[in-house]
Design brief:
By secondary structure, the chain is α/β, with parallel strands linked by helices. The chain is built from 14 helices and 13 strands. Strands 9-8-10-11-7-12-13 form a seven-stranded mixed sheet, sandwiched between helices. The C terminus is likely disordered.
């Protein structure tokens, strides 16, 4: 990938050329630093390109063109934004300072929203996309495909019903369009001054469905639960690895003297948790989605309410015969069985490595 030169065509064309190269490489992320060539992340692995170094001046121009904000006059050291290169790609940009200079991280967002089948999502995800009320979470580490899964769910929901879907996103990634529903995708910093302001206004906007791009603090969690309690369908993402860790983290966000009430609220409002990760595909390029799905049935509700029983949620998942639920490690074993993920890679991602090692000893799971 060649870094654009300052004596080349206008900056807009240079940005387009840079993005075309990233798309051709199937990059999920593009990193620009002053004095270094561009870096790209492909199939989860970061690599340094062979292009020339990006100058500090050029980087500031790229930031100004894509974010609409001149960094030379910026009063804050970091911000996020969305950018669209017509007919090519959408981007989520994060501008920040490092070493006294500007830096830029770009996440590549496809124009089209993938269908459930394209993502290898389990059938229960469709069910969780068609609920009339309650809270549904998609969780996982950075780069695990949470935004893509959530976009697929929301697009399905908005396509099969007529609802008012209001989102609070930082920034907007996938655009939900060409559906019979009324869609209000609000971007933090552009359409509302802050997440807090957006949350306060949310329930006054007559939503049927609410999407909060990430629950980061107690204020966002409290509004999500309040909305779910009052009959809304609420969807959100969370940066946790498993369903159990998600529930423990959410309960822990409340002060100790409020956690009994928080457990009751969560037990009543939660409908499901989809936890996921992207793993290297065995023997070829690309990555494979591995999921864990927790559906809030009577057993799970009891575990949420009772602090002593909350850790037993993992056992409920591990031993579940319910076709709607499955543990992360069971999905890993299926991927190994199907020849999609190498056993050693699966083992390195297992929730319980010792138990998973025993799973791999079963016939048909070696590879």
């Amino acid at each position: 990938m060649e870094a654009p030169k300052t004596d080349s065509p206008p900056i807009e064309q240079m940005v387009a050329k840079l993005l075309q190269a990233a798309v051709a490489l199937r990059a999920s992320d593009l990193h620009l630093r002053a004095g270094l060539p561009p870096f790209v992340r492909v199939d989860g692995a970061l690599s340094r390109t062979n292009g020339g170094a990006v100058t500090a001046e050029l980087l500031e121009e790229i930031i100004a063109v894509t974010s609409g904000r001149d960094p030379s006059g910026a009063t804050v050291p970091q911000w996020e934004y969305s950018y669209e290169s017509p007919g090519l790609v959408r981007l989520r940009g994060h501008v920040f300072r490092e070493g006294g200079q500007w830096a830029l991280a770009l996440r590549v967002i496809p124009f089209s929203i993938p269908a459930f089948g394209d993502l290898r999502l389990p059938p229960v995800v469709k069910t969780l996309s068609e609920l009339g009320s309650g809270l549904v979470l998609v969780t996982g580490p950075t780069g695990s495909g949470k935004s893509t899964t959530m976009a697929s769910m929301l697009h399905h929901l908005a396509s099969h019903d007529t609802v008012h879907l209001v989102s609070l996103e930082d920034p907007v990634e996938f655009r939900i369009a060409n559906v019979p529903s009324c869609i209000s995708q609000r971007e933090i910093g552009r359409d509302t001054p802050s997440l807090e302001e957006g949350l306060r206004a949310l329930l006054r906007e007559d939503p049927d469905v609410i999407f909060i791009s990430e629950i980061r603090d107690l204020a966002a969690l409290d509004v999500a639960l309040q909305a779910a309690e009052t009959g809304h369908s609420v969807y959100a993402t969370f940066h946790t690895g498993t369903a159990l860790k998600t529930l423990q983290r959410m309960i822990g966000m409340f002060p100790a003297d409020e956690q009994v009430a928080a457990r009751a609220r969560l037990a009543d409002s939660l409908r499901g948790v989809i936890s996921q990760a992207l793993l290297p595909r065995k023997g070829s390029r690309g990555r494979v989605l591995c999921t864990e799905v927790l559906v809030n049935n009577y057993s799970v509700k009891d575990c949420i309410r009772d602090p002593a029983r909350t850790p037993a949620i993992q056992a409920v998942l591990d031993r579940s015969t319910d076709q709607q639920m499955h543990a992360f490690d069971h999905c890993l074993a299926s991927l190994v069985r199907d020849g999609l993920v190498a056993p050693d890679v699966a083992l390195s991602h297992a929730v319980a490595p010792a138990d998973f090692r025993r799973l791999l000893n079963f016939p048909g799971l070696q590879g």
